[in-house]
Specification:
Layout (H helix, E strand, L loop, with lengths): L2 H17 L27 H18 L24 H21 L4 H19 L14 H16 L2 H25 L5
Helix pairs in contact: 2-4, 2-6, 3-4, 3-5, 3-6
Length: 194
């Protein structure tokens, strides 16, 4: 190779780092620690899957009428939007939200809603297993999530400890369609979710 070409190639590889140019956003599958991250299939769920979730939500709302419950806090505020997070933070937030949802619904499944929750739980477990490939492993030492992500993760952890079972169930069920149609779609869309 001619010496001039070598110099040009070297400058092309070194120049962007010295100019301070921002790196191009990478798709979820290219994120560090995200090997095997294939979320695009979840940009939209099938009508049958959504119908199974609707039946579960309707049955849950029916059971709420028989309970005397009072929840003062909103676990999933309407202002919370995954688009406010960096692309790499979104799967982390969704994974935590989905893990809490699964824990709550599995506890609920041991009740009268058992048969209605079978299909939704199966779908959520499948989504969760695929999502885990997109979440970078948490180091035991080093930087921890900060800012909005830290606040959201902390809020979910605290809710699991402090909220009553009935309030957790209500929060999870009322958030279920946002999780499935907005949050999941945003994570599945990667850096195209703006």
């Amino acid at each position: 190779m001619a010496p001039g070409c070598t110099l040009v190639l070297m400058l092309m590889t070194v120049a962007p780092s010295r100019t301070g140019a921002a790196p191009v956003p990478s798709p979820l599958g290219a994120l560090p620690g995200a090997r095997g991250c294939h979320m695009a299939q979840f940009k939209s769920l099938s009508p049958q899957e959504l119908q199974a979730f609707k039946r579960a939500k309707d049955a849950f709302e029916e059971s709420l009428l028989q309970k005397d419950w009072d929840c003062s806090s909103r676990l999933f505020p309407r202002t919370r939007d995954l688009r406010q997070l960096q692309v790499w933070e979104r799967p982390v937030a969704l994974e935590a939200e989905l893990a809490l949802t699964l824990n709550v619904l599995e506890a609920t499944a041991n009740s009268s809603l058992d048969h209605i929750l079978d299909q939704p739980l199966h779908t959520l477990h499948h989504i969760h297993s695929k999502l885990q490939a997109c979440v970078p492993a948490q180091p035991t030492a080093g930087p921890r999530p900060r800012g909005r992500l830290h606040h959201w993760l902390h809020r979910l952890q605290e809710a699991a400890k402090k909220e009553s079972r009935d309030c957790l169930e209500a929060s999870v069920m009322f958030n279920l369609f946002r999780l499935l149609t907005r949050d999941l779609k945003c994570v599945a869309s990667g850096d195209q979710c703006v």
